[in-house]
Amino acid sequence: MSFRRSFLKKASVAGALGMTGLSGCIGSIGGGSDSVTFLLTPSESDVDIKQQYQPLFAYLESESDVTIESEVAADYSAVYQAFKSGQADIADSSPTIAIQGGNEGVTEVMGIRVAYGAAKYFSLLTTTPDSGIEEIADLEGETIAFADRLSTSGSLFPLYMLKQAGLDTGNAPDGDPGNFQGQWSDHSTARETLVNRDEVMAAGTGAFSTAPHVPKDQFPEEFLETSAENDGDLGTETPELKLLAASDPIPRAPIIMRAELESEMKTSLTDALEEVEDGPIEAIESTGANRRQTVVFGMLSQVFTPFIAWTMYILEINTRIAVTMGLVGGGGIGYILQTQRQLFKYTNMMATILVIFLLVVSVEFVSQRVRSYIRGEEEGTSFLKLVIEFPQRMARSMWE
Questions:
Q1: 120-251 is classed CATH 3.10.290.10
Q2: Cβ count within 10 A of residue 371
Q3: What is the model's pTM?
Q4: Among 10, 74, 154, 384, which one is most buried in terms of CB atoms within 10 A?
């Protein structure tokens, strides 16, 4: 379900949950002073998580005037280590990481995803219809596939449900379970392992991964009333799976930020997220729209205007960069200027400088006016101010 994640709603997370064995690294990442690193976690191996989040990145960039540099972490442990080492500024995380980071003063909760009107989701334990497993207790001595070890819906809640049914979870998820075997990967891989490997008798995953494979009549009423997965897709995917247990509702995974991030940037990013309204999304859903229609008309429609503004801003920057790149031999508009200087054609050089000046200022003027108009601002930057600040902007383009 590649569209299950959407935009964010401001929320808080409270409580405490101990975790051990946090380890791993993601290599060298990080942005400059005007950029933030947004770390993503591939909970589903068959989903392009960067592409999925691209509209959100464009929206944040246009509203907060920062550049989002996205990286994909190997797992949740890598996410937490990146925050502790200062290599990540914002992350798509799990509630577990958010609580641990909050307790240690490493992270703060920025927002919680709301997908199709649901701020909560579910964890499922499933098996195959011909496995002979009728209840959770039958899994004693068997092999169970899980998602990431620190995944809330793909590991912690399934282990909790197993323990409640009387199984010995031992030192899992950090170590080995007691009276069953566990295999950890990601949600999609756990599901596929259950289907394709005979020795694996059950899978613990988020409902977004396995719910489409389970017939609707097997789900409890609370799931049907609360879950965003109950959108007409239940039981529509093959192969069919059998539901063993569904968890209580779980708060959706939060977006967290580095606690030491500059205060002004925190405020800017958080304010941008809060501007996304739930009303249009709920209105679209009330008409019976499917998932794609909800995304296009309820979510993307809200960020379409900022996306245009950001595109115009990029055009403005690239025009200046095209000049400075040519001056150092990289091609672009500035290459003509550099060639004429080398040939001592100073008259032509001055004419080229004038044309470049008019071109850059004109592009900036149009861009500023378009961005001001679509944002509803009464006045944009004046042409005179653009001319006066032109040398400063060109110098910044050259050195940055």
A1: no
A2: 22
A3: 0.57
A4: 154
